[in-house]
Amino acid sequence: MTVPEQEKTVPELLQEVARQLGHMADGYDRIATELHRANLIRLQGFFLQRLDRAIDDQVLADALSTFRNLSDDKRRQMLTANAQYSLILLSHRIGATDRAELLGHLKVLRRSPVFVEYWERSAHGREGLPADSFEARVGRAVDAIMDERLDDLEEWWVVGPDSESSPG
Q: What pTM value is reported for the model?
């Protein structure tokens, strides 16, 4: 024989409903976060497809590139450097890499003379960024990395710039 459960009072029922609604809201927040990440990945995929096509087709490269007076090969290098930099940022933005890994990847990329040239040539594109934006914070971190001596970059896993100028 079972003992009947004591009936809950209205305030207790309301508390239970509120608790359940809170759990549902948390679930919806997680879903929204994952959808946002998926959309970022998809958007970056479109961007990279266009860059790949531009790297292969000079007419498209002329349309996408802001770099002028470059040979076809040099423009391809600049577009490729942009694509690699964008992938590193996306990796951090979606949570696949943490801040230390992001800075480590950027320090490794800094060793590439092509990336160094890309960074110098693309400075105009970073000038108008809002100072507190992700891209601006990463840009300041890369600027600090660019100021480091190459032999200081051997220990790439060491976190470089201070937290004020650091990304994410």
A: 0.72
43-55 per-position pLDDT tens digit: 988 988 999 999 8
Q: Are 153 and 106 in contact (CB under 8 A)?
A: no
- Residue 104 three-state SS: helix
Determine the Cα angle at 142 with ends 139 and 146, to 5°.
135
The tokens for 23 are 């759990």
Q: How far apart are CA 36 and CA 79, in angstroms?
A: 26
Phi first, then psi, for residue 36 (nearest 5°) are -60, -45
